[in-house]
Design goal:
Helix content: 40-55%
CATH superfamily of the largest domain: EAL domain
Shape: globular
Strand content: 15-25%
Number of strands: 14
Number of domains: 2
Radius of gyration: 22 Å
Structural class: alpha/beta
Number of helices: 18
CATH class of the largest domain: Alpha Beta
Length: about 425
């Protein structure tokens, strides 16, 4: 079970290796003590602390041992956290980074964006005071499957490696559940690509999807996941589990003349109603052949496939996309939902996006629910459904039936559908 508000459950879900080390950099001894206690409760035993930016930089340039996780406060006595971030990037620091700040949320969010823009592994940010459930959620999000904290264990894959994997059936799908906000009912899953490598184990998508995109294999990859997802939904339905499935597609897929025919043929081959398939189009991708994309989307709608605009708010010409493309669903990116309960700017964006979706007759999905506070907040927004690590991590298809039973019990036992706080309560934060 994934219960981040109960530390006994978190400890079972999240278990670091004995060799995973943590460095906490903060000038305040109280903050260092709280953070150390939280990480120890999560199972870490190798915990070190420091009080200056120089200590953080030293671990990235070989002067001192490099930790698997660096918890860095932005306000330091010798240099600003932003300067530390730049030095870490210059030194090619590859471990997981958590940013902590007493500053306003806008500044903290900007620092997080800077770190990612500089290709650091920023797994999240946290305003003071530190909370164990939030730390647990961030750590779990970078610990999925074969993912490790230390980037040094990652291996590079070539186009030839990926082509062989596709041809030999090593690309599989894991499924992340989506539940209704008002009832907790499990209604859908999102199919997410995984690579079951014979030597490296389960390879996470950020290690091979960029390869697929750069070497022209993304269309083949999409077909693998789409076929696996449709076949899995059919198996679930044969045992009485009536879920729909969402599959990510790219603009490149939609620009391919044969994609629509392939999707229709797959649905017919498995005797599945196309309405059971939601195709999620990533909004952040530019359309190079607008006419062909419009043609594909129109034909998919005619054949009753459902369409979702994914990662809404992160890409190009959001309102133009909504105006011209026939979407059924708006999926709000996790970067806006996560921690919105404590950030008035994020709440404004979340609420305006959900209101826009409702006005346009679209369903709104809130991604990125990673804590009990996120869950409680989303229940006040009017979103129809939600997904995130607070609910469940992606899992193999055969694990879904057992998870549904555990989720239903959890909804009852933890009273997850209890009276949500009114939206006005958040306005005072």
């Amino acid at each position: 079970m994934l219960v981040f508000c109960r530390m006994t459950t978190v400890a079972k879900e999240f278990t670091p290796r004995p060799t995973d080390s943590v460095l906490i950099v903060d000038p305040d001894i109280v903050t260092r003590t709280i953070a150390s206690s939280a990480m120890r409760a999560l199972g870490f035993t190798q915990i070190h602390t420091a009080d200056s930016g120089a200590n953080a930089v030293a671990c990235s340039n070989g002067v001192s041992e490099c930790p698997q996780i660096l918890i860095l406060t932005l306000t330091l006595p010798d240099m600003h956290g932003v300067d530390v971030i730049r030095k870490l990037a210059a030194n090619r620091f590859s471990s997981a980074l958590i940013l902590v700040g007493g500053e306003d949320p806008t500044t903290l969010r900007a620092a997080e964006a800077l770190g990612r823009a500089l290709h650091l592994r920023v797994i999240g940010s946290h305003a003071k005071p530190l909370r164990r459930d939030r730390l647990a959620a961030m750590l779990s999000s970078c610990h999925d499957g074969a993912a490790r904290f230390d980037g040094g264990l990652e291996r590079e894959f070539t186009a030839g490696d990926l082509k062989r994997a596709i041809d030999e059936g090593e690309i599989i799908a894991h499924y992340q559940p989506q539940v209704l906000v008002d009832s907790g009912a499990v209604i859908s899953v999102e199919a997410l690509a995984r690579w079951q490598h014979p030597e490296a184990g389960l390879v996470r998508p950020d290690q091979f999807i960029p390869v697929a995109q750069s070497c022209g294999l993304i269309r083949d990859l999409t077909r693998c996941v789409l076929k696996s997802a449709i076949a899995q939904v059919t198996r679930w339905r044969s045992c009485g589990i009536g879920l729909t499935v969402a599959v990510n597609v790219t603009m490149s897929d939609l620009e391919a003349p044969e994609f629509v025919s392939h999707a229709i043929e797959l649905a017919h081959a498995y005797n599945l109603d196309p309405e059971s398939v939601m195709l999620e189009v990533t909004e952040s991708q530019l359309i190079s052949d607008r006419v062909r994309v419009l043609d594909s989307l129109a034909r998919l709608r005619i054949h009753r496939f459902r369409l979702s605009i994914d990662d809404f708010g992160t890409g190009h010409s959001s309102l133009v996309q909504l105006r011209d493309l026939p979407f059924d669903e708006l999926k709000l990116d996790r970067s806006f939902t996560r921690d919105a309960h404590g950030d008035s700017r994020l709440r404004a964006f979340v609420q305006s996006s959900i209101d826009l979706a409702r006005t346009l007759g679209m369903s709104a999905v809130a991604e990125g629910v990673e804590s009990a506070a996120d869950w409680e907040y989303v229940r006040t927004t009017g979103a129809r459904s939600t997904q995130g690590y607070f609910i469940a991590k992606p899992m193999p298809g055969d694990a879904i039936p057992g998870w549904i039973a555990r989720w239903n019990a959890r909804v009852h036992d933890e009273r997850l559908l209890g009276q949500a706080r009114q939206g006005a309560a958040y306005a005072s934060n």
